[in-house]
Amino acid sequence: MLSKEQNDAYRTFYQSARQNPTLDPKTTLLVHMATAMAIGCYP
After folding, report:
1. Residues of the chain whose pLDDT is less than 50?
2. Can you give the residue range of the structural domain that contains 24?
3. Which partner for 7 in 2, 24, 25, 36 could form a disulfide, CB atoms 3.0-4.6 Å apart?
4. 43 found inside a domain
């Protein structure tokens, strides 16, 4: 479980990557998977 501060930072990063029109869909998916794995969620 993440602390509130870590959770807020994660959500900010996740949303910025998700709403970034510069990234192509494949790169966006890889960023999502990497951030999830970084906090301990494995597919």
Report:
1. none
2. 4-38
3. 2
4. no
Residue 9 lies in a domain: yes
What the block records as the tokens of 4 is 């509130």
Number of structural domains (the chain) is 1
State the Cα–Cα distance between residues 25 and 6, nearest whole angstrom: 26
**Mean model confidence pLDDT for the chain:** 84
The confidence score (pLDDT) of residue 42 equals 61
Residue 18: name the closest of 9, 8, 2, 29 by CA.
Answer: 29
pTM flag (> 0.70): no
* Phi, psi torsion values for 11, nearest 5 degrees: -65, -40
